[in-house]
Specification:
The chain is mostly beta strands and about 110 residues long. The chain has one domain: Beta Barrel (Lipocalin). The protein has 2 helices and 8 strands. An 8-stranded antiparallel β-barrel has the order 1-2-3-4-5-6-7-8. Strand 4 and strand 5 form a beta hairpin. It is globular and about 35 Å long.
């Protein structure tokens, strides 16, 4: 358990989404400041475009790097949506990962400390 909390500390903060390979900046900033936020040992939230949702996070390692894997539930213009994602701390302290919409699009993303 202590190891998981150590991994969580590397992620816990508000990260500003600066790039997604499927959606452009006009879409990303449609409603509010885009972000991926990790809180505590298993919670978080995500907001971009018309999405605003909550995360259920599990921390660990993948290929030797600290990793946050998450499922999410959100609303997309008032329609329920869900999916999964993962993030690792990459070069220069940036967060890199992939976001999946259940039965829909998916996109790689890059975040910077917000």
């Amino acid at each position: 358990m202590a190891e998981v909390l150590g991994f969580a500390k590397a992620f816990v903060r508000r990260w500003r989404i600066v790039e997604m390979d499927v959606w452009d900046n006009d879409f990303l900033h449609f409603l509010e400041e885009v972000h991926l936020t990790f809180q505590g040992k298993s919670d978080g939230e995500i907001a971009f475009g018309a999405f605003k949702g909550f995360l259920d996070v599990r921390y660990g390692t993948r290929n030797g790097s600290a990793c946050a894997e998450f499922s999410w539930e959100a609303h997309d213009e008032n329609d329920p949506a869900c999916g999964r994602g993962l993030a690792i701390i990459g070069p220069a302290g940036r967060l890199v990962g992939h976001f999946y919409i259940h039965n829909g699009d998916d996109s790689a993303f890059v975040c910077e400390r917000g």
